[in-house]
Amino acid sequence: ECDDSSVRQMTFEPLDHFNPVLSPAGNQIVFYRTHTGDESQIGIIHANGSEYTIITDGSNFGTFPSWTPEGEYISFITGQ
Q: How do residues 43-54 score in pLDDT, each as one tens digit?
């Protein structure tokens, strides 16, 4: 059962954000967001909602990010 008091909006852009994945350490969330047309980007945000950063450039797209078991790297699907 979901208690609405524990739900918190973390991004405030007019873009759609998908597939949030918590890092193994529990301190960061990786996700992908729509950008323009068929393009999407990979981003990271701290679990407390701070330091929102896009980590891919606009020349390609990335979807379905995932942390490595140690949390050192992020893998995702990319293409043209």
A: 999 999 899 898
Q: What is the DSSP string of 9-55?
A: ----SSS-EEEEEE-TTSSEEEEEEE-STT-EEEEEEETTS---EE-
CB 9 within 8 A of CB 20: no
pLDDT in tens, 53-69: 988 876 667 788 999 99
**Cα 11 to Cα 9: distance, rounded to the nearest angstrom:** 6
- Indicate left, alpha or beta for 55 from its phi (over 0: left) and psi (-120 to 50: alpha): alpha
